[in-house]
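Worked example 3 (structure in, sequence out).
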């Protein structure tokens, strides 16, 4: 049984990586189910919601949200990601674009989601992305973030290339406090701060027991923030 999205982390996201990521969604691996459940809880998708999927990669999150009746648009700065997503989900819209310079009009979306994206952004690019997302969201619109927790032991091992492979593209790993501060600096109000245990059976049990008290046992950070309703 495939446990999740595994393999040595690439130095760049090539065609093989995109295919593996898309395959993890189509196979509904434990890694995928964990990710999508967190996205569902954060976004709270409703029919007719206009949702922007930031860093859409193979299109998994964008497609998943359409199953709830959302109108989704995915953006990614990698042409191979847009090509892969468009091929897998030809009825959906995917744009080649930098999340720090979005090609959409003001107030175009009700919600935005960044699942496994912000860890790839520098502080400067994160700030630019948050500014752009704020611009394209309606007043009271939400941004949901799902990302690795830099304090978790798995990330500690990856950073040192011990047992697990280091991911050279993870240039912006942060903890929940740092992300919340960046959101507030951009004018968002954080209305949900949560976390998820991993999908690995033994570790998951430990995380569930200790994660409520110990931040290093929180495998994934889950944050949601909203724009001011009166702007």
């Amino acid at each position: 049984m495939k446990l999740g999205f595994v393999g040595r982390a690439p130095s760049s996201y090539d065609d093989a990586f995109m295919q593996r990521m898309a395959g993890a969604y189509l196979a509904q691996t434990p890694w995928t189910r964990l990710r999508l459940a967190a996205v569902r809880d954060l976004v709270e998708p409703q029919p007719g919601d206009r949702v922007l999927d930031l860093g859409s990669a193979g299109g998994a999150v964008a497609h998943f949200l359409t199953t709830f009746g959302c109108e989704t648009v995915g953006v990614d700065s990698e042409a191979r990601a847009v090509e892969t997503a468009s091929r897998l989900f030809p009825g959906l819209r995917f744009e080649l674009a930098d999340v720090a310079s979005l090609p959409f009009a003001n107030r175009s979306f009700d919600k935005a989601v960044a699942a496994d994206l912000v860890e790839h952004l520098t502080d400067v690019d994160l700030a630019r992305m948050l500014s752009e997302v704020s611009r394209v969201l309606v007043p009271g619109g939400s941004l949901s973030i799902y990302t690795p927790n830099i304090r978790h032991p798995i990330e500690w091992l990856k950073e040192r290339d011990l047992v697990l492979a280091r991911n050279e593209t993870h240039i912006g790993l942060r903890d929940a406090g740092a992300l919340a501060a960046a959101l507030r600096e951009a004018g968002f109000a954080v209305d949900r701060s949560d976390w998820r245990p991993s999908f690995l059976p033994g570790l998951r049990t430990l995380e569930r027991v200790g994660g409520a008290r110990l931040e290093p046992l929180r495998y994934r950070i889950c944050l949601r923030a909203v724009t001011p309703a009166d702007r």
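Notes: The chain has one domain: 15-226. The helical segments are 15-27, 30-43, 60-66, 79-88, 123-136, 153-159, 176-185, 201-210.
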